[in-house]
Design goal:
The complex is a heterodimer. Chain A is an alpha/beta fold. Chain A is 37% helix and 19% strand. Chain A has a 9-stranded mixed sheet, with helices on both faces. Chain A has a two-stranded antiparallel sheet with strand order 5-6. Chain B is 0% helix and 51% strand. In chain B, a hairpin with a 2-residue loop joins strand 8 and strand 9. By secondary structure, chain B is mostly beta strands. The chains are: A alpha/beta, B mainly beta.
């Protein structure tokens, strides 16, 4: 257990089409203001900041600190995409625990626009730029279309099994005023949606939005009066777990899951709320399986029963698939901030009764054939 | 266009790699030989029907290919080769492609 805790969370509006004058920086500002207000922390008391963004350049973290008027003694800029949020959380917890800073802001945000996102996707790394983009691979959609095909064959999944995830998350999104897609989705609509990269259709591919998220890390006694801080029982991460030599159907979570649960002193059955990084349903399933949530590794049964029958609260803000992905870093932070709201009993219409324990994950950095980074954390409502 | 694709084989342990690495992930050796791989079996195919930020996009097919004695590769398909098909591989600069093997 870390002595530091999460004491506040805030986000900007999410939008598919930023208005003139809106930028990555303005979305981040809005999230920072919301998070500090939520945590009841004065900006002058913030002495640490971590940020991840695909579209902050040419600014760096210190430029952002300058523009936010923050004078810091602890600073981090993270580049791990979908697991950036989780990575920054781990560093920030240790930063507070070590006394490097009393209050640390953790920020993610992007406003790339669709054209900007296309350029990022084609130049994600050297392997992508040189060996995938010239094929017209479609960015991550193409890569995860191949992974999804492998997963369907290996586990006997039908297309509709992925549909259960998209539909369940859309039902949660209907209760989240920040989600960009809130209209209920039927299986008929899911199955009739146009293909994007076979076998992935429209509702299997995370929608790119503009927006930002921020959370505040500090000692629990800094939490607003009358509100429980959110403590972190365990946190683990993995980077380049198999040198891209496998099939991508396991994630780096598989390397640390047992250690994570042992460290936390709880088991998957104890979890009330799960926030699983969901740029594609296939990868949400892979992470859930790695974490030990899927009995007998029967992914099809889990989709049809546990998700289709709404037996498990997973991605209760709608996930990125319905709420939108404001870049991987902020998308990952949304997973954490939703867990925080649930554990503090502040999730409004989507509140899960008596939520005391949550798991949140991050996954990302598509290196060549699948993602190479993953992380997970076990969160609990503090006293 | 050249016939076959270039992969990298560790001089220390023989591990076959693509793309090239700085150190061998198996033995952390520093030296590699270039080798040619000429064919592979299509394991999965994706049809890219939409490209973000692109209008008038024409669908393209990419595939995951298991090479004989080499690494798994992601290639563009230049024909209607199906899953399970043996394809011949070729390379245009860094990009790898494949098409059904001639009879």
């Amino acid at each position: 257990m870390y002595s530091a805790a999460i004491i506040g969370a805030g986000q900007s509006a999410y939008t598919r089409r930023p208005a003139p004058g809106q930028s990555t920086h303005t979305f981040i500002r809005d999230a920072v203001v919301a998070a500090l207000r939520d945590a009841e922390i004065d900006a002058r008391d913030v002495h640490g900041m971590a940020v991840a963004s695909f579209s902050l350049a040419p600014d760096t973290a210190v430029d952002l600190a300058w523009k936010l008027g923050l004078s810091l003694r602890w600073l981090l800029q993270d580049t791990n995409g979908g697991s950036s949020a989780m990575n920054m959380l781990g560093h920030a917890l240790r930063g507070v625990d070590s006394g490097a800073a009393d209050v640390i802001l953790v920020i993610g945000g992007d406003a790339t626009g669709l054209a900007g996102y296309g350029k990022i996707a084609a130049n994600y790394n050297i392997a992508t730029r040189d060996h995938l983009a010239p094929l017209g691979h479609g960015g991550p959609n193409g890569v995860y279309a191949l992974v999804a095909s492998r997963q369907m064959k290996k586990y006997g999944l039908a297309k509709s099994d992925y549909g259960h995830i998209a539909i369940a998350q859309r039902a949660w999104a209907a209760k989240n005023p920040f989600a960009v897609y809130r209209t209920p989705l039927t299986m008929e609509e899911y199955l009739a949606a146009p293909m994007v990269a076979d076998p992935l259709s429209r509702y299997d591919c995370v929608p790119v939005v503009a927006g930002a998220q921020a959370i505040v890390i500090a000692h629990p006694d800094r939490a607003p009066r009358g509100r429980p801080p959110v403590r972190v029982r365990a946190h683990r991460a993995s980077f380049n777990y198999d040198n891209q030599a496998g099939d991508g159907l396991q994630t780096g979570i598989s390397t640390f899951a047992s250690d994570l649960w042992q460290r936390a002193g709880v088991a998957p059955r104890d979890v009330d709320v799960a926030s699983i990084y969901d740029d594609y349903p296939s990868m949400a399933l892979a992470q859930l399986d790695d974490l030990g949530f899927i009995p007998d590794h029967d992914l099809a049964r889990f989709c049809r029963r546990d998700i289709g029958e709404q037996r498990r609260p997973i991605n209760t803000w709608g996930g990125m698939l319905s709420a939108g992905q404001p870049g991987g870093p902020a998308g990952g932070l949304n997973a954490i901030s939703e867990a925080v709201l649930q554990l503090q009993g502040r999730a409004g219409e989507r509140q899960v009764a008596n939520a005391r324990l949550a798991v949140a994950t991050g996954y990302g950095m598509t290196m060549y054939r699948y993602g190479g980074t993953a992380a997970a954390t076990i969160l609990e409502r503090g006293e | 266009m050249s016939t076959g694709v270039t992969i990298f084989r560790c001089k220390g342990c023989g591990a076959a790699l693509f793309p090239q690495r700085l150190l061998c992930p198996s033995c952390h050796g520093t030296a590699f030989d270039e080798a040619q791989v000429h064919e592979g079996v299509v394991e999965e195919i994706a049809v890219i029907r939409h490209m973000i930020g692109q209008e008038n996009w024409q669908p393209r097919r990419i595939a995951n290919v298991r090479t004989t004695g080499g690494p798994m590769l992601t290639v563009g398909l230049r024909d209607e080769a199906a899953e399970g098909a043996l394809i011949e591989l070729f390379q245009e600069e860094g990009a790898l492609f494949g098409q059904a093997k001639s009879a």
